[in-house]
């Protein structure tokens, strides 16, 4: 996908919580990622193909094997800029209100606030010719179904359009039509050797 260079869009991305260290010019190449990759080049290329076609991949392995480090490099390469890579880390206390949309306290009361899934999706809808990546770290430390709610099915590649939208309804009559656009890909990491957590089944 080609990339836009609209200054206002870039400012919005930075305000939304995008990872800021990185630009178009220093995005890693496949060759620069290979030394940190334990598999073959064809396996690495298959991950990039899955990101482009399936829109989601999960990197799993034992703790301390560099999954997050590698995921960030792949995300940077795929998106072209770390400003279009957003990150969330799941944990037992992480909730739907944190990840999708919820009501948050302010100094004067409460307000509806979008989480990283909605923020990156809204940015991607404004710039459909750019690639965005949502990096979910430690995916199986949280309750995936509870965290994602009705958005869980929307990550599937064949549901990335307006006709598959869902309504994110909150109290006080606040409703929001939501879908994940096709230019958002998801990379998740999960441990397989941590006995304190269970594998997700989705």
Kindly summarize this structure in a few lines.
29% of the residues lie in helices and 22% in strands. The protein has helices spanning 7-15, 30-33, 41-53, 67-79, 96-99, 116-126, 144-148, and strands spanning 56-61, 85-89, 101-105, 110-114, 132-137, 166-170, 174-178, 184-191.
Key words describing this protein structure:
four-stranded parallel sheet, alpha/beta, 202 residues, two-stranded antiparallel ribbon
Task: Describe the protein in words.
With 202 residues, the chain is an alpha/beta fold. It is built from 7 helices and 8 strands, in the order αααβαβαββαβαβββ. The strands form 3 sheets. The protein has a 4-stranded parallel sheet. Residues 1-17 have low confidence and may be disordered.
Shape: globular
The major β-sheet equals: 4 strands, parallel
Number of helices: 7
Q: Into which percent range does the helicity of residues fall?
A: 25-40%
The Cα radius of gyration reads 17 Å
Order of helices and strands: HHHEHEHEEHEHEEE
**What is the number of E strands?**
8
Low-confidence stretches: 1-17
The proportion of residues in beta strands is 15-25%
């Amino acid at each position: 996908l080609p990339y836009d260079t609209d200054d206002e869009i870039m400012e919005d991305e930075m305000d939304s919580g995008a990872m800021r260290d990185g630009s178009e010019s220093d995005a890693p190449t496949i060759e620069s990622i290979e030394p940190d990759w334990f598999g073959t080049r064809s396996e690495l290329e298959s991950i990039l193909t899955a990101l482009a076609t399936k829109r989601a991949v999960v990197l799993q392995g034992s703790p301390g094997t560099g999954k997050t480090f590698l995921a960030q490099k792949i995300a940077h390469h795929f998106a072209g800029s770390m400003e279009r890579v957003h990150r969330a880390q799941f944990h037992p206390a992480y909730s739907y209100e944190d990840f999708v949309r919820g009501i948050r306290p302010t100094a004067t009361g409460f307000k509806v606030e979008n989480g990283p899934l909605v923020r990156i999706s809204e940015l991607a809808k404004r710039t459909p010719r750019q690639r965005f990546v949502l990096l979910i770290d430690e995916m199986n430390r949280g309750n995936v179904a509870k965290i994602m709610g009705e958005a869980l099915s929307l990550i599937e590649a064949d549901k990335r359009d307006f006709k598959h939208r869902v309504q994110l309804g909150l109290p006080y009559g606040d409703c929001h039509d939501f879908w994940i656009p096709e230019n958002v890909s998801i990379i998740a990491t999960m441990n397989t050797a941590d006995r304190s957590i269970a594998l997700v089944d989705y």
